[in-house]
Amino acid sequence: MPYSTRRGFLGACSAAAAGSVLADGATARPAETATEQESALGETVTDAVEQALPAADADGATVAVIEDGEPVTTEGFGHAYRNPEVTVDPEVTPLRIGSVSKAVTFVAAMALVDDGDVDPDSPVSTYLESVPVPDQDAYDEPITLAHLATHSAGFEQRYPGQVAVDAADIRPLPSALRANDPNRVAPPGERTMYTNYNAGLAGQLTADVLGTDFATAVDRLVFDPLGMDTSTFDPLPRALVGGDDDAAAAVNWFSEMPPASGISTTAADMARFLHALVGDGAAGDGRVLSAEAVADLHRQWYTPHERLAGASFGMERQRRDGTLVIGHGGGVPNFSADLRLIPETGAGLFVAAHGAEANEVQAAAREAFLDAAAPVSTVEPTTDGPPARVDELTGRYKSGLVTDTTSFEKALYGITRPATTVRVANGRLVTDDGNTTHRWIEVDPLVFRRQDGRDTLVFDPTDGETYIYRATEPRGALRSVPWYGQSRHHATFALVAGLVILSGAVGWPLGAGWRRFRGGESPDRSLTRARMAAGTSVAVLGLFALVGLFGVTNRWLYDPPPGFDLLFALPSLAALLSLTTLGLTARAWREGDWPRAARAHVTLVATGLVTLCGLCWYWNLLSVPW
Questions:
Q1: CA distance 297 to 420
Q2: Torsion of the alpha carbons at 80, 82, 85 and 91, rounded to the nearest 10
Q3: Cα dist. 196→176, 182, 449 in Å?
Q4: Which residues form a coiled coil (predicted)?
């Protein structure tokens, strides 16, 4: 079937009603049937995008819709990225799709499995030639392609090797993987920890098996068979910006991990991709997978809990009132995309948008599609009382990106990933992540459905901790956080410690100046040494804060310069000086040196410094990460 704009599709259907035959040899449906079909799903999605674009701060979008196993809509909206003079054409205007790239990467990997070239349950080290597996001997069980496809390999998420701010700085994939070099923080298969490195390593495995680079491998395995001629791993295709050189020069984000986030593509190309995945692996005259491999791609490869649909091979799974939905979302700066498949009905959606609030447009299209193609019913409570085991459920929870990261990025994730509060109100469980609040109804012990029926929440109390798994976020858990690990308490500790430290940093120099002016007696030499150690610690921590806040750029985070490690020696030095101050103060208390007020004040200042250094330790800022 031709892949065209909505208007082109309807015109083709009208011609088919007059007796035409489609290019693939199948007789077309009557025009009125096709129009009703398109209006039932394609119109719903395009109407949602048309309403969301002006309401959100977004500039353009492109959409592809599949229904009953056939494409019904490909359409563009708004203008090309940074170029108001060029409208989005679903056939020729690519948009960046972020992590939806992972779906393509793992289809390419499944093609190798389909051909018998790769065993998904064999160690990936068997196939990798260009890069080693980080911490390969950390656990007895080896990492397999299946672990990478379900993000259950146990890798932490790292910044280095993922992004370049200039196209000239982009490294080859093997070099970017080596730069990323994540630690393994869990045995393979134990739990999901969503990282770009999983897809990056799977992409390099695919390239190594074929003896080529990753982009060529995907061309050979996916793009060429399906005729996806406008899909590319080019870091900045000219069509993305409508051919405008000035617009291209203003772009400052480029993926260095293309298997995870590097594809730019059109709605027409993604219609072919969707067509193959909701069917038997073929689209038009091309085939990417066998029918058996498509079924294998869709099945559950991992789940953290039996009540959740878990993960397919490279995508997430969710059941909406019994209907299985498979898909993957994605976002990079100024772009947001989503892909959804409903295999049992042959429905599919691809949407990509760009602009400051592109995610609002993507979300509107996705929800309109799901509400029409896989509707859910609201959940009615069966009891009036509070949830069972309520004391084990309430509290604050953080993403595994925060709780399980061993490098300095833990602090960055702590800032960007706010905690989720779980409480009980009016007998119902309530979650609040600072942006959205939802009410949940218990349908089984420790299993909750959102009142609108669109999500499921499962609690798993284990070994004194509680994990939360969500149907709509199967790629990672939320983990309960004790009071001493909660950011709100850390902020209070830091504020109080800062005020106490400030009293010394300001008061001691003022006191010394006053004594000099009055001609007073100098303090005990050991007191002076204690104050100097504390003051130097304050200066070192201040320097660390200034460099961290104003000196560390994105370029430093993704491609650390030589000597970047030394930055993290500063809080370590401050900790040593703070302990020295505490030691001198303890000696003064023991031997009765210094005036009592001076002892008390220095003790408070030293305690404040140790508190700040302790926070640095908690957020992995005391250690050298590389």
A1: 32
A2: -10
A3: 11, 10, 30
A4: none
Q: Where are the beta strands (DSSP E) in 81-137?
A: 83-87, 95-96
Q: For the stretch 213-239, what's the b/e string if a residue is b when 16 or more beta carbons lie within 10 angstroms of its beta carbon?
A: bbbebbbebbbebbbbebbbbbbbbeb
In the chain, the N- to C-terminal Cα span, in Å, equals 53
Q: How many CB atoms lie within 10 A of CB 411?
A: 18
Q: Are 81 and 332 in contact (CB under 8 A)?
A: no
In sequence order, the 6+-apart residues with CB closer than 8 A to the CB of 415 are none
Model confidence pLDDT, tens digit, residues 448-502? 999 999 999 999 988 788 999 999 887 778 999 988 888 889 999 999 999 999 9
Tokens describing residue 517: 């002016």
| Rounded CA separation 134/369 (Å) | 40
Closest by alpha carbon to 100, among 343, 264, 216? 264
Return the amino acid letter for 62: T
The whole-model pTM stands at 0.89
Phi/psi class of residue 420: alpha, beta or left (left: φ > 0; alpha: ψ in -120 to 50)? beta
Q: What's the CATH code, domain 6-373? A: 3.40.710.10
pLDDT tens, residue by residue, 348-382: 999 999 999 999 999 999 999 999 999 999 988 87
- C-beta of residue 387 within 8 angstroms of C-beta of residue 448: yes
Q: Identify the residue whose tokens are 């990672």.
A: 476
Per the structure block, which two tokens stand in for 47?
């109407």
Whole-number Å distance between alpha carbons of 410 and 191: 19
DSSP 288-345: SS-HHHHHHHHS--B-SSTTS--B-SSSEEEEETTEEEEEEEEEETTEEEEEEEETTT
**What's the one-letter identity of residue 615?**
L
Give, in order, the Cα–Cα distances in Å from 20 to each of 12, 13, 37, 67, 285. Answer: 9, 9, 19, 21, 19
Residue 38 above 90 pLDDT?
no
Q: Does the CA dihedral 513-516-521-526 come out positive or negative?
A: positive
CA distance 604 to 611: 10
